[in-house]
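Project channel, design review

CF: Before we commit to the Pseudomyxococcus hansupus constructs, I'd like one complete example in the thread so the newer folks can see what an input/output pair looks like. Taking Mg-protoporphyrin IX monomethyl ester oxidative cyclase (Anaerobic).
RD: sounds good, go ahead.
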Amino acid sequence: MGGRVLSPVLLVGAGTGEATCGILYLAGYLRRGGIEAFVRLYDGDETEAEVTRTFESLLRRVRPKLVGISLKWFHHVDRALLIARTIRRLDPTIRVVVGGNSASYWWKELSGYDSIDHVVLGDGEVPLLALCNGEEAPPNVVTRTPDGRPRRLPLAYVQRATNSDDIYYSHFNDIFLSQMDLHSFSGWVAPGKGCGENCLYCGGARGNQKADFGRAKPFLRAEEYVRRDHQEIASSTWQMRYDFAGSTAGFLSGTWAGVDLSHHCCTYFLWGVPKVELVAALAATFQRVYMVIDIGCFSEQQRLEQMGRGLLKPCAKDRELLEVIDASRKYPNLDIEISGIGGLPFASKATLAEELRLVERIIGLDCVVGYQRLEAQPGALVTEHPARFDMETEAKTFAEFLDYFERREPGDVSVPMIRFRDAGLEAAVQQTSDQVDAMAWKHRDERKSVAVHGKTRLRNTAPWTQRFTLGDWLGSHRAPAKFAGEAVTVLRSVDGITMSCAPSVSPNRFSDPTLMQGEDGAILLAALAAFEHPTTVSSAVSKLGAKARLDPHSAREVIDHLVDGRFLQPA
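CF: and here is what came back for Mg-protoporphyrin IX monomethyl ester oxidative cyclase (Anaerobic):
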């Protein structure tokens, strides 16, 4: 490496939508280490041509010496390789590095691609900084020897409770390339890292954590540094999101100390039924709380069978689950989703009937149901050894997963599945899955639906509205200079849906898929303005006819669209 410092650095995610929060922790760490790091957090590109155009502009703006690609989720592997190929083609001098859970699992295969210079295994902060500083033997890093073979260094850097005090969010005013990127951040905070369970369906279970990260046990980060996370991001996000099993009410309350979160929402993905104290703390701290409780599967018999065999994390019995739902009813600002997987091993006619009964009961209590069929995850026990459970998988090897994802059409989010070899059982499982899906989505739609007629009084309930220039919102790499000063009005609904309106920018002159432009943008802003104060729908239709020249039918369509997005709600 010759000791050359690689700065600036650009960090991106391998998938579309919001990248993992890991690149934000990395960027802050690099900044504190003297490296000029930037993140591209949001990716909306669908085609290879769009990816090329985006990286042409990104590389011109940042001029990075190193690009880091976060390959956390396995279903982004084809996207990671596309990005790596694109960067190599556009500028062969840029060092390309991939890291994350899936990159660590597939390090041998990824090291064989000429477009990838290094694979970082496990925790990435110290290894990536060492690479940027030109160190000869950066820990945890896979490099190629002169004969082209990958050389894996030992996992010398493993984050634990005793050595992770330097991991926290920072430099949020410096690392983002656009306001859109900053406001795409969903508020993820990591109270801790790792997993101590060995669920048969999970590629990130204890065994792979040990192999890929060197971490056999999960740990909680120091309270002070999780509090720094909250302090850094509270002004930039509308919610906080958590996904960790070990957090208690006392721990989280300490991390919230001194940070006003009373106007924030909270989404918490729980690996089991929460204690009453945690539920109470969440409800008292946040304006609204959405708890997702993972119970493994909706059949208690099947759940207990897997737990008894050591194949599933500790999950609640039905009685315990219903008790926490009942105890949560006292908090009007709290909603619950119960999540489980269909088609797990040991399914039978009896377990399928149990699934339907519990789903019906949960929906009857007005809790949302989250449900999906068993998918193939690289490294998961059931993916590696499906025959043990009389099942078969649609993908197992790196080549099979990559082939599956490369064949998907743009916008297709399907993944390889695991199914029963017994055709009759598979048909019964799929029929139950279809029934649960239908019930769950019908219930979701009913919860969201608002009956709107001419006399309905609505009000603009968007809790956040800001104006930016087009250059600030999209970033100078994305907005042409001649339009950079045009105004963009950005609104966020109570559910976090963002709408960006640029009425002065005709799509015939410049078009961006994230914007509502020209006349469309003007109409949406006019409709929202009509409901600045509680107003009947019929009155607003008349206003839109006079001010926006909309016929009554078109005006109602616009109003219904804004109601569906919860920008307008009953007054």
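RD: helpful, thanks. The longest strand covers residues 334-342.
CF: The first helix runs from residue 22 to 32.
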